[in-house]
Amino acid sequence: SSSHQPYRTGYHFQPPKNWINDPNAPMIYKGIYHLFYQYNPKGAVWGNIVWAHSTSTDLINWTPHEHAIYPSQPFDQYGCWSGSATILPSGKPVILYTGIIDGKNTQVQNLAVPKNLSDPYLREWIKYPKNPLMASNVENQINGSSFRDPTTAWLGHDNIWRVIIGSKYHRKGLAILYRSRDFKKWIKAKHPLHSGKNTGMWECPDFFPVSTAGQNGVDTSIVGPYVKHVLKASLDDTKHEYYTVGTYNTILDRYIPDKGSVESDSGLRYDYGKFYASKTFFDNKTGRRILWGWINESSSVEDDIKKGWAGVQAIPRKIWLEKSGKHLVQWPIVELEKLRVKQVKLPSKILEGGSVIEVSGVTAVQADVEISFEISDFKKAEVFDPSWTDPQQLCIQKGASVKSALGPFGLLALASKDLKEYTAVFFRIFKGQDKHVVLMCSDQSRSSLNEDNDKVTYGAFLNVDPVHEKLSLRSLIDHSIVESFGGGGKTCITARVYPTLAIEEKAHLYAFNYGTENVKMSSLSAWSMKKAHIY
Ligand code: DQQ
Fold this sequence. Notes:
seven-stranded antiparallel beta sheet, 2 helices, binds 2,5-dideoxy-2,5-imino-D-mannitol
C-alpha cells in the first residue's frame, strides 16, 4: 500500500520497481509516442542496463512493453547504453545506441531497426549484423571508454547524414562528428562539431534547431535563416547539463555558440536542480520540440534499495527559443492538464510581510499549482552585490527563513501542518545597477526529518523585469518531486524530497511572504492531480 511507499509518483513516469536513468530515443511513430529508458531489471541501483520501453498516445498515460534492446551480441553484451532515434525520410525509424563490449566499459555505436514497421508499438528491434558501426581504434584517437550516447542524426543538403557522439580528450569535452551516406557506413570527421575546454566528459549530447519565430519546433535536419541551433552536453563530472544557443555553420560543419554562451559554470541549464541525461525530439504531429529528462534520487543508496526503486522521468516539456534569442523556455506539455481536477482559485490578495496562507481543498501531495505576484514598491529592495555571481550559493546563504525587504515569497510545498517539514520555492528581488535582479530558489533544507537525504538548496537567476511583468511560478508536486517553472518557464528547478510527516493526506500547501514588505499575490490556482496510468 502507499503508506509503505509514500515517495512513489502519481503522474511522473516510473516503472513498478528497480533503477531507471536516461530517457532514450523518444519519438513519435504512426501517432504513437515512444519512450525507451535505461533500466536495471535486477535492482534499485545502476547496472545490467537494458532499454525498457513504453508507449503512449498523450505522453502522460503509458503502456509498458517488453525490453526493446538488451545485451545479446558481442557488440553489446556488457550493456546497452544511451542512444537516440532518427526518422528516415521514408518514415522508417532507426536507433543508434552505445554497446559495451567488455568488462572495461569499452564503448561502440550500434544500429537497431524495427522488425515490423506495421506494428505502431515497434515492439521488436533487430540489431544490424555488421555492428558496431563506430569504434575506437589506433588511428582515430578516440578514448574507447569515453565514447557514447549518439544523438538523433540530421541530414545535410548534400544528402549526407551527421551524428554526434559524446566524448572527451583529456579534460576537453567533445561532440565527435560522424558522417554517412547510408546510415551504415559512418566516417569520423576530422574535427568535432564542437568541444569544451576543461569540462570533462560530455554525456548525452543533444543538437537541434529552434525557430526564431515563435514556439513551434522544427525537424532536426532544418537549417537556414529562421533557426538558431542549440547544443546541450551532460557533464559527467558534476552531473549538470549545460546548453548554448548558437549557429550551425554547415560549410565548416561546426557549431559556433553565440558570444558569452558556454557549456560550464556560468552557462545556461535546462534545470538548476536534479535533471540529467535529457534528450529532445520533434513531434511532427503537434509541431512541438519536446524535452525528456531523468530526475535522479536525492536519497541514500540504502534507502533506494529499501524502497526497491530509484529514478523518475520529468514531465515532458515543450521547449522553444525565447524572444531575445538568448535562452530557451520550457513548459510542461499541455496534455498534463487533463489530469487536473477540483480547481481551487484564490482571489487576488495582498500577502503581508511575514504571512503564510494555506491553500486548502487540494490534494497537496499530488498537485499542480500556479501562482503569480506583483510588486508595486521597490524602494526598499536589498541592493545586489555584484560579487554574487553564483545564484545557488546565494540561495544557500539566503534560504527560506532569511528575510529581506522583497522576499522570500512563494510556495511551501509538501509541508506538514506544523511546518516542521516543507520545501520552499520562492523569489527574492534585489536592486541591481540598472535593473532589478530576480533570484529563484528551491530550498530543501527543511524538506524531511530524515538526515540521510541530500537536501542542498538550488537556485538560479530569472530573466524577468518585475517592474513591468508579473512574477509567476508553477510547481508540479508529486509525492517526492517538486518540479518548478519560474517566469513562464524561463528558469526551471526540480527537487526530490522525502518528507516523513508531510506524506499522503498529511501534506499541505501554503503561499508565503517572509519578506518585510507586502507583495500582491495577483492569482493562485491549484489543482488536485489524478493518477496517470503508467504501468
Ligand atoms: N547513462 C548511460 C550512458 C550515459 C549515462 C548509461 C548518462 O550511456 O553516458 O546508463 O547518465
